[in-house]
Amino acid sequence: IKPVCECNPCYGGPDCSMFLTDCAANAGSGDPYFLEPFWMQRAAKSAILVAGWHRMGYTFPDSSYISTQLEASIHKVHAIVGNAVTKGKYIIFGAGSTQLLNAAVHALALENNSSSPATVVASIPYYRLYKTQTEFFRSVDYQFEGDATSLQNISDAGNVIEFVTSPNNPDGKLNKAVLQGPNSSAIYDRVYYWPHFTAIPTAANDDLMIFTLSKLTGHAGTRFGWAVVKNKSVYQTMTEYISESSNGISRDAQLRALKLLNVVLETGGREIFEFGYDTMKNRWEKLTNTLSVSNRFSLQKIEPQYCTYFQKIREPSPAYAWVKCEREEDKDCYKILEEAKVDGRRGSAYAAEERYVRLSLIRSQDDFDILIQRLSQLVKE
Ligand code: PMP
């Protein structure tokens, strides 16, 4: 029983069991509550208790900002999952991957000693923060220009930095860089490249890759992410960025990340990835079945694919549904879903048409069940 203040907003009463018939399904934000039951079952072994005197200083005893134990656990988790080559590469910690995304733009922009600002692009549909964050800093070194494909046939586009999200938010596709020129570099945002959300066809070996605890263990609130970087000078500039902006990452967050990763590693990742994959696969199956009775809405197509981690062909299990309203007159898909009491995210938030809406599938089971209820009702009508 949860305290009333912790009830899902669709439930009320003294023990959160009363369904409030009028509420909207929350399929908006990407809070990864689907992993909450996993951690509830491992409450004691995943807990940390920090004494008041512990780690009061700015650095670890070896004068570093980075826990070497945590760095070793990160190498290990990539090695057992086989999702990224980290050997011989540098690892940088950030306050979530959010901080590292801009650290990477900053570092790549400075790599090329050009007098004009670097152009920052991404393929549509793309995660909104790439644009909002890049514009927010108003740097003289880089500028957000939008769609990557618009530069595809330009022979000298100057220094270009391409965000590649793989799997993509919102549509779960395993994207690859569309720009390959001598002056272009890519930031591979691989925060969803874990067996919960996708097959792992191969170990990614990109020059700059970004990961986060938020989507691996689900602890978005801990604000801990890491970058895996091949080039030494990019690594040094990113490290300087983190040092100048925040004097390194909270030692408390690192301690919690270490504890959680070590629970993940206990079973070679089997327990969390099987739980994550089963949960997400079942949700995708339910959603596709629910929408299949109508041709008014369609979903992105993801084929079953061989996964080197599970060593079998596995079914799709994306973090988000990228819903398209198919009818000519349904131009504002968000509004149609909103009227049916489904709260998603507008296609325009991903630089796509309003005919699209993203629905988050990684929230709690209550949120997902209510989403299915609302959608069943809508397609029935
Ligand atoms: N990249 C992508 C593609 C995301 O979807 C998110 C979270 N929604 C992030 C980065 C940021 O995650 P965090 O800062 O929690 O690591």
Percent of residues in beta strands: 15-25%
CATH topology (level 3) name of the largest domain: Aspartate Aminotransferase, domain 2
- Which ranges are low-confidence, i.e. pLDDT below 50, for 5 or more consecutive residues? none
CATH superfamily of the largest domain: Type I PLP-dependent aspartate aminotransferase-like (Major domain)
CATH class of the largest domain: Alpha Beta
- The chain-level structural class is alpha/beta
Q: What is the second-level CATH architecture of the largest domain?
A: 3-Layer(aba) Sandwich
- Which distinct ligands sit in these coordinates? 4'-deoxy-4'-aminopyridoxal-5'-phosphate
Largest sheet: 7 strands, mixed
Give the CA-CA distance, first to last residue.
35 Å
List its salient traits:
single chain, 381 residues, alpha/beta, Aspartate Aminotransferase, domain 1, 4-stranded antiparallel β-sheet, 10 helices, globular, binds 4'-deoxy-4'-aminopyridoxal-5'-phosphate, transferase, Alliinase_C, EGF_alliinase, aminotransferase, Tryptophan aminotransferase-related protein 4-like
